[in-house]
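ok posting inputs for the S-adenosylmethionine job
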Amino acid sequence: MKHYVSLSDKALDFINAEEISRTLEYAKEHKNDKGLIADIMSKAREKNGLYHEEAAVLLLNNDPEVTSEIKALAEEIKLAYYGNRIVLFAPLYLSNFCINGCIYCPYHAKNKQIPRLKMTQEQIADEVRALQKMGHKRLALEAGEDPKNNPLEYILESIATIYGVHEEGVIRRVNVNIAATTIENYKRLHAAKIGTYILFQETYNKKDYEKLHPRGPKSDYLWHTEAMDRAMQGGFEDVGLGVLFGLHSYEYELVGLLMHAEHLEAVYGAGPHTISVPRLRPADDIDVSSFKNALPDDVFLKLIALLRVAVPYTGMIMSTRESEHIRKEALSLGISQISGGSKTTVGGYANQNAAIDNSAQFEVSDNRTLDEVVRWLMECGHVPSFCTACYGSGRQGVDFMEICKRKQIHHYCTRNALLTLMEYVNKYASPETRRIGTALLDHELDKLPSKTADELITRIDTTTNEIKFF
Ligand code: SAM
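and the output
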């Protein structure tokens, strides 16, 4: 099948619905074609990725041996590109005021029972102090879409507040997940020195998208789908894609997601910096059983492995929407970033009261503290990382991708992960986590040339909270 990729920045071209149907028909017809599967798997083993047409065939194939091979390869690819580090972050909800009508989200404007909260700059600073106390260095900013309550000026002021709090530590990277906006606004957001601009597509299926978003600015499928092009035209080099699995069929979404990634890479020279894999969760007035496309765990895990194989150079993010059990499995299938100690409430890190508790966007499945997550990661053989180096040292967009595609990024990742773990263990960890962390650091540092190990400790300045990253 001839590979389709569109250089046009029009959504109906780069997420061409006929191409998705054609791909799925082709995959259905060839899903048991042993010769084709063998060819695709041998291309996959080169670790340079797969086209959406090829990934779709593997997705529809049901041979358990092929699935096992995809999963094993996904783990190999993650290790080859990124090493054994897992990056940690936390979401920070600024405001749940929203004028949209997203059927799956409790922040939708018609929900009159959810407490509407918007943090002041002082409250944001309190949240940041609480997050810093836990040891967090990287945040994902979240807010509902509401031009009156949450204008871009509010988001920009909040970013400045977050970067400005230097008490229990420092937040070194803020990623932002806010609604699709104009090129002009993306330029202003980019100038605020944020890391990645993240926006979930929710679903790539236009018809279902329109049903799921009946009102508000987000109801415009084209405006939403073309947002990443505008973000890149506005100066962003790193953007994060995602689909909310459970809204439409996972087969359609996988093809759409890969077509989007291929389009960005073809036009801007860099595919998505990250791909998130959220699944629909119960929430305030949201009954998940009314959605008919729930993604079962086994299919979800295969899909994660396939994404890792198809876009080996892209970071993959899993949030606390997933349980400890699923997160453990997914970490061995290519997930490279997870959140820890998360609250999806507005103001819930620093304070708890009924209004704050009830302001949550969705129920989390992993309620462990950051310290518990860090300890667990180490016990599972991963190196927890609070690294934010690539952003600070200009390794972004095309530059990042070039190093990553040469499978060189893990040299940076490993050393920077150890640096930040050293900082975490010394400053934030509980005694038990410190004990395990110290042993892990000794073990991992032994693998490095000795000069690097000695040098590491000199790169942390505990008085200024500065780290000299590699
Ligand atoms: N207002 C922005 C927007 O519209 O893109 C910010 C997004 S919201 C704070 C973050 C994401 O949460 C959404 O893009 C959606 O995918 C996800 N989300 C919403 N409702 C959810 C639910 N019930 N379960 C799981 N994830 C949900």
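notes: The mean pLDDT is 95. Residues 104-105, 142, 144-145, 177-179, 199-200, 202, 218, 244, 278, 280-281, 283, 286, 321, 361-362 surround S-adenosylmethionine (CB under 6 Å).
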